[in-house]
Amino acid sequence: MNTTYYPEDDILVIHLSDAEAVREVSHGWNLNISYAEDGAPCEIVILEAKEKGLYPIQTEQTAA
Asked: Would you list the domain boundaries of the chain?
């Protein structure tokens, strides 16, 4: 998984896999999820990510 942020457009793209997207579904006006042929999500696109407080991404790591 990796992410790409486009600051000039405030768009965050989260790449979940290298699979080719065959279908894209809009989940509201600013969230699009792309799906691979097997039905697994492969990419998430969030519009106005920083404005909505979704970028920068904060992660936490805890010991198991």
From this structure: 2-47
